[in-house]
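Researcher: Here's my situation. A collaborator sent me these components and asked whether they could plausibly form a single complex. I don't have experimental data yet, so a predicted model of the whole assembly would be a useful starting point for our discussion.
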Amino acid sequence: AQKVTQTQTSISVMEKTTVTMDCVYETQDSSYFLFWYKQTASGEIVFLIRQDSYKKENATVGHYSLNFQKPKSSIGLIITATQIEDSAVYFCAMRERYNTGNYKYVFGAGTRLKVIA
Amino acid sequence: GGIITQTPKFLIGQEGQKLTLKCQQNFNHDTMYWYRQDSGKGLRLIYYSITENDLQKGDLSEGYDASREKKSSFSLTVTSAQKNEMAVFLCASTTGTAPYAEQFFGPGTRLTVL
């Protein structure tokens, strides 16, 4: 079975700085997809960014980017110029294939980010 | 765009009671999911469904039943609520079986068992 591990439980950073959140994964699949989601204090969960395993270039969306290191099975989330509203819990997830050809997600435990003014 | 609605927002039950949570989506997505999130923890998959009338067990299906009678709706039943059980149940959906498709989440139902 596939596994996603986020070892950082909580991170605090000053506003306008850059933060990196770590995520490592285990998979037997040769082709896979990695996702980052954000859960705000209200409980809302939104999709942020995705990395396709066959792509060498790191994905970037707005002030979110990924540090994809395939040999290390690592997919870090980088947030540049952090803002107070970036304070949230961030989940790393992988889409796992079933024999039926269908997919489900495996989530990490999450990293809580606090951005301080 | 679309939206996922979950009812009720808060659910308070008694020990041993059977409780039903409902989820509706208007994305016209094929696949729907139920997750449980305990306080300060990650998401654990209870059930998912790839199409109407299909049900697939997740890692946490014991103690739960699910129903997908329409493409747009997915219900979860706690078959016998456990005392002191407190968690948020999240419904999600995604389009088809494309492996790169992201999930869209509902706002959650917060369960408290007295």
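Model: Some features of this prediction you could bring to your collaborator: The two ends of chain B are 38 Å apart (CA to CA). The first strand of chain B starts at residue 4 and ends at 7.
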